[in-house]
What we know:
Elements (H helix, E strand, L loop, with lengths): L6 E4 L1 H11 L5 E8 L7 H9 L4 E8 L9 H18 L3 E5 L6 H13 L8 E5 L5 H15 L5 E8 L1 H6 E3 L6 E3 L16 E7 L5 H11 L3 E2 L2 E3 L7 H16 L8 E3 L4 H19 L6 E7 L3 H13 L4 E6 L4 E3 L2 H7 L4 E8 L5
Helix pairs in contact: 1-2, 4-5, 9-10
Amino acid sequence: MKWSSYMFFQQDEVADFWKSYYSKKNARILFVMGKGFDPRMNNTLKMLLQSVSYQSLECLAIDFPAKEKTDGDEFYKQNVAVFEAMVNEKSLPNKTITVDAKLSWDNRIKSMLRQLNQITLSSYTDIILDVSAIPCAYYYNIAKLLYDKTRYDQTNFFIAVSENVEIDKLIKKKYNDETITPLYNFRALYGMESVFNPINIFVPLMGEDKREHLKLVYDTFHPKEVCPVLPFPSKEPGRSDQLLWEYNDFLTDTLKVEPQNLLYAPERDPFELYNRLEKLMQDYKDTLKLINAQICFGFALLTSKLLALGVLLIGLKYNDEVQVYNVNSSKYDIVDKDKIQRENEHSEPFLMWINGEPYV
Length: 360
């Protein structure tokens, strides 16, 4: 079972691993990142440049310009200026893929993937995807393309994220009903309109202030059972208890969630979440195979990027059985512009080794 054993680095381990690993090999690294307003945009690249200064390194930036003025425009300009200063100082080859915001969500992703497919990935020994400033709908699809391209060879594929739950709380998405749809390329074979008439199991990853989002996905997916995932252990003691208190009436009265259906997963280990979700899926399959049932698992991403990466792993391996729901939005409100910049000082790096040497 892939990723039952895994390579995962956090905090100081990330820089230590890069310094040790790349000191022993002649690597050709492609660093894929997003251009955006999130203050974490340049954190990972800055650390990488400090760790692998003698390696061949190229940058590929994915840009997502907004159709109209947003709260994040000032931060976007600052982030891009810092990025350009870093690549110019190191004379790093770099390229930008720009996503056309006038297109529908699906067509934006298709256009981005067509441009990515034109890049000869086999010329690199290592590919690092930093999702810190990339919207979920995009980084799920970028990761899927890179995973499919590297899974059968020895190219190392990593996913990095600069994690900060407090920053996530300060960024509020604006949305409408039409945005609550499964992500492109993560729409199960046994979907809602499938002739297989599947049994739908709903697995929401719980986060603060997401009641409306949770209800919209629930009403769209029409599940037979609900298995909420709560972060435990968490960096913030008692966070899972606070979430239970926040959603208590909705979980018990509206969704009719049984206590035994609650799933707990470490907030800071997406591989461990993946393994627990895989076991949950297998348990349902074993139970329902007696009636020869087809099962569709619907995941709602209502939590941090780090935990959302655990669902990404499930989607990469069980693509035909999984629908992933996210609130797609091009508009955001930043609750406190001064605080969000200060909070970035407390962001922490994480690195997941997805394909390559450990799994050959």
